[in-house]
């Protein structure tokens, strides 16, 4: 009997799958059943397992509709990828790019850093191979994005009116109490107080514009909701379970209509691939306004990782900041300062008849 029974050939399929090709001895019709000739070389009609993850789901990615066929019959796709991902896509000495090319039987061109183009080029003899490379690149970019720090967040500004005035009153009262370990650096600026609805990683102008387009698409979520949203800001709470070792102290926000919009907006952005890791791992938005954060103090001085909030909660736990209205949500740049010392706004979704306003901010 042929030694190929003990050492059969191995066939590489898509998605890095490898399968043994069981060889039937010639006496049992091996040439017929395995599609091989007597020399053991593969014939043109050798069996190949279909790619179960190819044809059915390739069109789920909008980029697949941009695949073009060249005059010579080859297929190609120009895919926008921010330059921040190029290093991870290429890999050490080109290992990652080479692996994807070998597994999908494609050629992938990644622009150099000094080139203006942000489009990588995928080429292959067959369309489904371009789609296979597209899927692998999307998966890789998704993994790389999870490791990157957020750049933008979706916010409701609370830095005006009654809420801001009451915030200033509370800050003054807490500082006048001269509690151990409590200083002004712990407080967020009254010009920056806000409610966060989402956190994202947006790495170039294309992604920022795409995020604004997705935000505009969320306008449809307002159809059955009463706007502007009314918010009640009352009561102090902490993010952890130990008030003696607190990192974030915040004001609780109550708004049933805004909660519905926030959760639906979260679910929508989770389908875009633009969310930071924290947003991808949650099912609901916690409506809150940060009052004190130990990170603010650590940015200006060396100090411990937490502060004691027990006396603050005891004296001011039921503090009422009043009522505010939400008439817009803004896409803002993290750790920035824009007009009126609020965060730099990239674009906004305003409620009512006004259209969303965009800008070219970073």
TrEMBL record:
<dbReference type="InterPro" id="IPR009210">
    <property type="entry name" value="ASCC1"/>
</dbReference>
<dbReference type="InterPro" id="IPR004087">
    <property type="entry name" value="KH_dom"/>
</dbReference>
<dbReference type="InterPro" id="IPR004088">
    <property type="entry name" value="KH_dom_type_1"/>
</dbReference>
<dbReference type="GO" id="GO:0006355">
    <property type="term" value="P:regulation of DNA-templated transcription"/>
</dbReference>
<dbReference type="Pfam" id="PF00013">
    <property type="entry name" value="KH_1"/>
</dbReference>
<dbReference type="GO" id="GO:0003723">
    <property type="term" value="F:RNA binding"/>
</dbReference>
<dbReference type="GO" id="GO:0005634">
    <property type="term" value="C:nucleus"/>
</dbReference>
<keyword id="KW-0694">RNA-binding</keyword>
<dbReference type="InterPro" id="IPR019510">
    <property type="entry name" value="AKAP7-like_phosphoesterase"/>
</dbReference>
<dbReference type="InterPro" id="IPR036612">
    <property type="entry name" value="KH_dom_type_1_sf"/>
</dbReference>
<protein>
    <submittedName>
        <fullName>Activating signal cointegrator 1 complex subunit 1</fullName>
    </submittedName>
</protein>
<feature type="compositionally biased region" description="Acidic residues">
    <location>
        <begin position="52"/>
        <end position="62"/>
    </location>
</feature>
<dbReference type="GO" id="GO:0006307">
    <property type="term" value="P:DNA alkylation repair"/>
</dbReference>
<dbReference type="InterPro" id="IPR047538">
    <property type="entry name" value="KH-I_ASCC1"/>
</dbReference>
<dbReference type="Pfam" id="PF10469">
    <property type="entry name" value="AKAP7_NLS"/>
</dbReference>
<dbReference type="InterPro" id="IPR009097">
    <property type="entry name" value="Cyclic_Pdiesterase"/>
</dbReference>
<feature type="region of interest" description="Disordered">
    <location>
        <begin position="30"/>
        <end position="71"/>
    </location>
</feature>
<feature type="domain" description="K Homology">
    <location>
        <begin position="73"/>
        <end position="142"/>
    </location>
</feature>
